[in-house]
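Record type: ASSEMBLY
Status: queued
Input:
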Amino acid sequence: MPKQNYLCIQRSQTGECEEPGQKADKPSPAQMEQMYAKFNAWREQFKDNIVNLGGRLAAGKVLTAQGATDGPFVEAKEVVGGYMILCAESLQEAAEVARQCPGVVRPGSSLEVREIQIS
Amino acid sequence: MTAPGAQPGSNFRHAGLVEHFFRHEYGKLVAVLCCRVGVQYVETVEDAAQSALMAALESWTQGGLPDNPSAWLFRVAHNNLVGELRQRAGRRRILERGIARDPASEASGVPEGVLAGEVEDDLLRMLFVCCDDAIPEESQLVLALKTLCGFSVQEIALRLFSSEAHVYKRLARARKRLRESPPQLAELGADQYGGRLPRVHQVLYLLFTEGYLSAHAELCIRRELCDEALRLTSTLTQHAVGKTPETYALMALMHLHLPRMTARQDGTGGLLLLEEQDRRRWDPQALQTGLSWLARSAQGQVFSRYHAEAGIAAEHALAPSFQETRWERVVECYTLLEQLAPSALHRLNRAVALAEWQGPRAGLRLLEGFEPPAWLAGSYLWAAVLADLHRRSGQRELAEQHREAALQLAPTPAIKRLLQRRLDGLKRQA
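Status: finished
Output:
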């Protein structure tokens, strides 16, 4: 079966950005080391599926027929935080690869996986 | 994608970075930057170091490791810090319209590459900062664990069997002191460091014993504190100020205890008695290293408690078997230790060694009429030793009484099983 590309969109579900004063929730150096190791293990395991690791999305502009505004002005609870492109044989496989990516799907965030149709 | 969230539990080690890289880099960053801008900014420095590690996590998972990860981290942390301090100085100037001193200008003069030797110097300096006389003793240890070993408040609480709130309180006390009257590190000469050396030894010793003697079931957690103590003590031995017989004795003590650490546990994590341990499992290399430090420590006029304790550890390490231990030397060392650092626990240990040397009655005589402090009287150790000695001298009833008490006081299941094995076995023999 030919492989398809899938776009993964990470959203914050609650719109809760990191609140100031929540220092206790910052990961410790030891935890960061574990995250680093986990992420690398994931990338190694699924290297054939990862087309573009993508990244975090910063502020941007929203273009409409009326002009451009600073954005994104979507609802706060749906702020898009990051993206990534995977290739897989099926939506199920792509979803599984994304699900196993450490830290991508966690409390307060959701991940949307969409096939990129080129035809 | 974006920074992965906290999911501890993986033991996977990524090739390319040494173990504890993040934690140790954090300690280095805090030390180097604090020494540049002053320890009163320790919290800002810690934030800058934390952000740098976060940035590394994102950047390195995407683009791979940079050529020199340490230098990369230093550059980012340094920029974070300078940015933050500039912003603050700017705000302050606007508020005061004055000529406030700009700490960022001091930090900005740092060349990009930091010399390895310089980092070690700064680590050491920071260790002496932690041992400020004006900081309460328990806060010194917490401060060292936080700033030099890179443990979070949560991780420190876990390792010291304390609550997070308590650890935070201790830390806050230390930081308050550093903010209010920051030590001028640059002005301290080697001889002035000397005055703080005993406290530095004490903190390192405490760090080690917290790991070695703790009743915590998880070996790897305890082992980590021991390894950190050893790492910092090694740093101390590499500098003029730390090259003293006491430091060497401390090194000997740590090296002589560590090889026994793994042998103290059986295959299932249960604790083993000294006489049950497989002495072939004691790492001969570490013993050799320990003994050579012990030899180096035997100089000068001072015989410290570290010498006495290293001496005891050496006797155990050198004995081919439990029975062949030179108990008279162990007793001698405990006697010296008791004189140097009077403690009821040392008396109790001496009684145990004396019982092995001259029989249980000699051990009991040493404890006769001795009123143990509440913390020891209420500990399983006291009851267990009395149970053992009474049983061996034929006083069954007393032995049984103390055995019951010891089992009831056992703090962990592992220790309870150990006591049962030892004292029940003795009961059968009786």
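Annotation: DSSP finds two helices and six strands in chain A.
Annotation: The first strand of chain A starts at residue 4 and ends at 12.
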